Amino acid sequence: MSDRTLSRPRLGAAGDALRHQREWFATLRGQAAQGRPFALVNADVPQELLRAMDVPYVVNQWWSSIISAKRMSGRYLEALRERGLPDDVEQYSALPLAEALSPRGDDAPWGGLPLPSVVIADCSGDSLRRMFQLWESELGVAFLPLESAAAEIVPANWWELMRHDWETAIGSPRIDLLQLELQGLVPRLEQLTGARFSPERLARIMALSNEQAEWNRRTRDLLASAPRCPVPVNDVIPAVMIPQWHRGTPWATAAAESLYREVSSLVAEGRAVVPRERRRLMWIGRGLWFDMDFYRSFEQSHGAVFVWSMYLALAADAYARYGDDPLRALAARFCAFRDQMYTPPWSVEWYTKEARTHRVDGVVHLISPDSRASWFTTHALRKAGIPVLEIRADNADGRSLDPAALHDQVARWIESLPDHT
């Protein structure tokens, strides 16, 4: 029996989150069928603003992950090509549009995404802006863009500043811009949805989401310090990210606490994903949604376990913002969002810090076609003495990788690493 066919019990927090998400999405579909407006938003859009208006939303990249996990990305992307649109640009953001432009079938994932009332995106490039404009020109869905700003002065240790000293970490001009944009977004959303913005509700949402971030921080730190990895990363990802898409709700905060307590119990029991853990690996890049079993492929054969993905680490370091003005704190949460993952020195110093604290023996670095600073990440890690294997593929496009070839490539690389025992 190969590693990939072994049956293992799922982390309780992961199973609970997946059940909740299915029930929530079924409810959203029912409400949309009855005419309730909802939004489709990119992951780097300040979603808490919509929650403070009681406007349901679907995160664009989450829906892309569902399409990819159902192995339907190729079909939908090819439908883009048939319409004369590119099928090899920003696929992770394009998949929901591709589904919406494709003929509706009975086999659509989870019954299919209803047509949203409005789409919102932070326009970090011309291709992304044009992609979301197609929602409006081709499907009649209002598109509300947000600008993407940059900074001349960048703090390398941003994770130490962001919770309380975010004004210094990010710079007031960038926060000013997004705060003004959010203030302008509110009346437009009220017009499109009939909802009303509540500053008092936003304050409660920000407080809950900060509490959620603190639980995620505790979980991340616990996993970093545990003698051996107690939980599989492909369970941690849904256990963290599904509550992230519901940030600021009592359910999401309770889910983050539940994950911490479950992990804490497993660490106290001495539980280990790989009893004879020989190599600890880090996955940098977006989740490999069309082959999530990949992350457990090397446990029995190589004693290798993935101990890190960006999802829990970002949830721990990138979201908490404390302050008296909830709208400004929300702007600060998102105006440097992409920098934390992709812009050196923000990203490279953070990845290196996380690799060291998690005691990794090597890094598998997934480089998507739209990556702009991947060289700096790989260079910084190698300079720190950490081996890196680069893989070039789109994480949501199942056509971009041969799973068997990927497995063999990574297996050979793991064999070249020294055991950490």
UniProtKB/TrEMBL annotation:
Q: Which domain of life is it from?
A: Bacteria
What species was this sequence derived from?
A: Actinocrinis puniceicyclus
The family note in this entry says:
Belongs to the FldB/FldC dehydratase alpha/beta subunit family.
Could you tell me one molecular function GO term of this UniProt entry?
A: hydro-lyase activity
**Record InterPro entries:** FldB/FldC_alpha/beta
Q: What is this protein called?
A: 2-hydroxyacyl-CoA dehydratase
Name the Pfam families for this protein.
HGD-D
